[in-house]
Design brief:
Structural class: mainly alpha
Number of helices: 6
Helix content: over 70%
Number of strands: 0
């Protein structure tokens, strides 16, 4: 349920319904979810025969990481290390 919720929320960003900057500035949880499920996604896509599964979540997570790295090149890497 968590991944489907954030997939829905991310779809609002990729469709242009919600402003990307506003969303990214206020939703670090999306990136936390992505980092937790990232390694599972290829198997999900294969099992479901759906290469587009959680594509919005992945895309907004990439944009969020890029935004973080604008402030400091290691910001995203540090974010991930603090989740462990």
């Amino acid at each position: 349920m968590v991944s489907s919720y954030w997939e829905l929320a991310a779809s609002f960003v990729t469709a242009g319904i919600v402003d990307q900057d506003l969303f990214i500035h206020n939703n670090a949880e999306l990136l936390q979810v992505w980092e937790r499920i990232r390694c599972l996604v290829p198997a999900w896509r294969e099992a479901w025969n759906n290469p587009l599964a959680v594509k919005n979540l992945e895309e907004v997570a990439k944009r969020t990481a890029a935004y973080m790295n604008q402030a400091h090149p290691l910001a995203h890497e540090t974010f991930i290390s603090k989740m462990q």
